[in-house]
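User: What would this chain look like folded?
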Amino acid sequence: MTKSQSSSTRTRTTSRTNDPERTMAEILKVATTEFADKGLAGARIDEIAAATSTSKRMIYYYFGSKDGLYVAVLEAAYGRMRQIETNLHLSDLEPEEALRRLVEFTYDHHQSNEQFIRLVMTENVQRGEYLAQSKEIQKLNGSALQTIQDLYTRGLKKGVFKKNLTPLEIHSAISALTFFNVSNQHTFGLIFKGKTPKGKAQTLKKSQVVDMLMSYVCA
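Assistant: Here's the prediction, encoded as structure tokens.
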């Protein structure tokens, strides 16, 4: 190693030591891709370390273990989605418009975040073992149901929503119609030979999903 290379390495190391939040964010970004592409079993800490120009020891220092890093990736993925939901300010909208906005957001989020879908698929293969370990994710997803409960209650009072639905039923319907488009795009497209120019399966359009959910919930 040359003198200039040695100096550069020391500079990077010092920078990372003095900015742990930035380092953790970079590790999480790379780890998200690694876990989404290869699953928990196939992902390699060595490759994550190499892609972040850091070390396995530093990753373990921040996240404890490979499993700990995986849980942190899941927490970050759910956290980003729930934060955007909060920024929709659904309580400021009329109930029907709030529901429509929530469905549109969920559809768009899943379409543009295939990594999130793949992480959820991986966790389903593992029967939710790691989600169950995270109190943070349970709290985040509890807030999602509360959001639906609030807008549904307002809609009931105004007589615009059907009675006897639960927040979980509404959330499940939204998830089912928006998740499938991404999770099954490759197999669906191959089996039924229906693909867009971008190579994705032609399934339900956003307007169709919104119409179906509004029909399901609205009186």
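The chain has eleven helices and no strands. If you want, I can go into more detail on any region.
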